[in-house]
Amino acid sequence: MLSSPTTINSLGEDLLLEIFRELHPAPLLGLVVEPQRDALPAFSPAQCRHRDVLAAIHGGDFAFTPLLDPQGPACDAPLRWRIQDCRGGYLLLTNWDAGLLATVNPLAPGSTEYFDIPFDREAPTGHPDQLPVSLDVHLLYSDEDPTWFQLVWLLYEKSRIEERVPPQDADENWLQSGSRANGTVYWPFTNQEHMLKLDTATMEFSVSELPPSLKGQQGCRFLVGETKDGVLCFVFCTVLSIGVLMNRVDDDGVERWILSGMVHYEVGAVDPPINNHTLQVMAIEDGFVYLTTSEMVLVLCLETMKLEMLFRGVSVPIISIPTSWHGLLPY
To answer: Residue 113 burial (CB < 10 Å; 0-12/13-18/19+)?
Structure first.
């Protein structure tokens, strides 16, 4: 007996959403950049004419006006908001002068929330080394409940580091800013040998070695991420070259880091590779790598290894903390 054919009406909502997310991945809304003066972050829309992108931008509040509300919690805060992270359409901002954190969703302006910075920003009298210094902050959110989120805040307190290692080695054994992939936050040690890992499901720490090809490469900038299929990867830049390391299992069942692709960005045949054109990995989202120079933003597809320009003429400073000055807003 033949079974009746399956129609779209017989599919559950969860399965339909999964199908349509796969067929129509969320387009990029644009780039949020910190201004170089006292002003709110600035939004540059993606250079495309995608109908959904245009509708979202038209209906959203990308001027971040909740931060200017004269009756709001930030009414007396100076306009010195710094971008710390961007996840799920939410920007995480800090205002050190006002001692405030803010989560802002341009597509839902009424959802802006404020929190006090959860540590003392002044050192005790006579103990300047006991002042915690913020290294980076990560916004953890839930796909099932977009209104739920957590913060992971990495602080540097030199006096405590020196209790565990010799003072002359304290800075060398500290951590660089982190990145996230597959539910884990990764912070490389400054010695470029190991990385600290935090499993955000269990909130447990562990330490692992960096891939052999990245060990000790002090001039190499990299980020941990995942492909569209969830495969862990490292994307690294050396001057004008971009490399991708994938975590693969060989025929003997041993996990190895394999160079899966290499792309060279050509500035121009007569232009020497100068500092302003040095590439830096900014973010890895949905199988795409976003990179910056001082003059433009580029995007690399991990599936095709095709490199394209996304924005030109955006003043993006080259710094050592990729997530501190920029936010990529997906739709």
So the answer is: middle
